[in-house]
Amino acid sequence: MTSSVDAKPTIFGTLLGVAAGGVCSYSSDYETANEAEYPNRSAYRSYYDGIYMGYKWQCVEFARRWLYVNKGYIFNDVSMAYEIFNLRDVREIQSNTTLALKAFKNGSLRHPEPGAMLIWDEGGDFEHTGHVAIVSEVLPHAIRIVEQNMDFVKWKEGCAYSREITVKIGEQGDFWLHCPPKEGQILGWMLQTENPLHSEDTPEINAEFYNLHLHQHKTASTNPRPWLNIANEDEAAYVKMMKGHWLSSVKEDFTYYYDISQTAEALLETATDELHGMFMHATDYVLQHPEMLEAFGFPEGILPRIRQSWDNRLNQLITSRFDFALSENGLKVYEYNCDSASCYMEVGKIQGRWAKHLNIKRGHDAGKNLFTDLVAAWKKSDVKGKVHVLQDNDPEEDYHALFMQEAIQAAGLECERVVGLDSLKWNEDGVIVDATGVPLKWIWKTWAWETALEQLRQEMVDPTDKRFINNSNTSAGQTPKLADVLLRKEIMVYEPMWTLIPSNKAILPILWALFPNHPWLLETSLELSDELKQKGFVSKPVVGRCGANIQLVDENNQTLAEKGGNFGGRDYVYQQLWPLPKIGKYYVQVCTFAVSGNYSGSGVRVDSSMIIGKDSDCMALRVQEDEAI
């Protein structure tokens, strides 16, 4: 390989070279970025013609921008550059249609062409991420490529490419690119072509691998002896709430469980990781287009704090939950619970303890990594002091809060659980302190942010008034309200305030507009269109929780299911009808849990109704080898 560079490294954003179509390559040395020019993460997002390209100035951003300018199509979002090698289509922007994309391994009989994407595996200089470049020229003994985020030096004067890579042609015409050890391995190249000759096979996946299956474990006793350790506070609280050592509230279901294939679990993992990125992109897009925030129903005075929360790099997620419908018909996401999601203990501990109690050897626990991942996330957090776990006085929140407290303490952090707000007080300095006088600095909560906003709505005469934030009109010894606690600037809250946006159903139409016809999304609109009426639709309040005020209507305008609730007066979104699969006597929803934005485990919630709600049961989910399905 020969490098085409002969200059010293440049600062972030410096023009390195210009490729075909006038596509510029910029330095991506983040350590030299000007904080005044790039004050927050939003400033690093790259758009071209209003279309999201990626993060400035990463390799994926350049590849997507080059393809858009020169070819008119882009590929879907990926978490890491090496994942591009698994894509099999691109989206033509003007027609909004998909075109075939084929992968050819290094050494293929089909040679790369100008415009091909060259993909590196993770490893070497590209540890964890891989790399992507665009082939600009194919020479007899080399190829020339254009790229970003390889190094931070300018291209050679007069060159419209960043570097050359040497080539050897085998006796059979096999095409090999040199791979220096420090760069890891070149996986191959990607071509937009309908011709599959010499391309990597795209394995045909049996759609039945995506079905869930109901099993009964044969046991001599259906009346279980105690099996949860009530000496552990979280397990004792769970037993108290369930009125015994039960996995679900229906005693006859004790020996039943669901399983999925390894192929289905792999799909859930990929979808969780990529959808998290898509929701984060949609969140940033909303904040860059303030007119869209009206549909979310937030008090206007709170918007600067939401923006500040998003821009603050300390405000990272600990954990969140996706709700899916999974079957042989495919995978569809209903919504993203970034704020105060539930069922962590059921998936991260209870279903595993249940399987051990019954000595179930078949498959493995789908939530076996959740607790360990939570501990790791807290270890990597920026917490520097005591974490206060805030919860309402509710039996379900008791064990939920205690489970998270256990993870926080296992991470080596000091933690105290606070039930209700009565033990919290304002001190003489206008600081909120706990019962021992320790100021609140770091909080994890089971309360929803929306609960605090509702307090503000009830108290505000002028929704644009910002004076309710950090209210200084307090008296020592008084008990603060939830809004007082969560909106203090000196208090870091997990999950952060910006999670109000991806957790709000108004994000779903925006997501559909940004990623139209994405295979994991359902068409969603703020207005009930004729097209949705013809398909069947689900109406959801934008801030609804636990299935409240949801209605399912089929293509014949017949109501299939509906639930009441306290959110009937709020605005609605309308989502394409995609019913949960009914397996046995229950409709089954798959929930995946993300920790720090990455997949960590799965569970199921079941109900005899088509709508999963607060009282819907959790049952065990296990993963089997494909051959066992």
UniProtKB/TrEMBL annotation:
This is Glutathionylspermidine amidase/synthetase. Keywords: ATP-binding, Ligase, Magnesium, Metal-binding, Nucleotide-binding. Gene3D superfamilies: 3.30.1490.330, endopeptidase domain like (from Nostoc punctiforme) (3.90.1720.10). The lineage of its organism: Bacteria, Pseudomonadati, Pseudomonadota, Gammaproteobacteria, Alteromonadales. Pfam families: CHAP, GSP_synth. In the C-terminal section; belongs to the glutathionylspermidine synthase preATP-grasp family. It comes from Brumicola pallidula DSM 14239 = ACAM 615. It comes from the Bacteria. GO terms for molecular function: ATP binding; ligase activity; metal ion binding. Residues 34-178 form the Peptidase C51 domain.
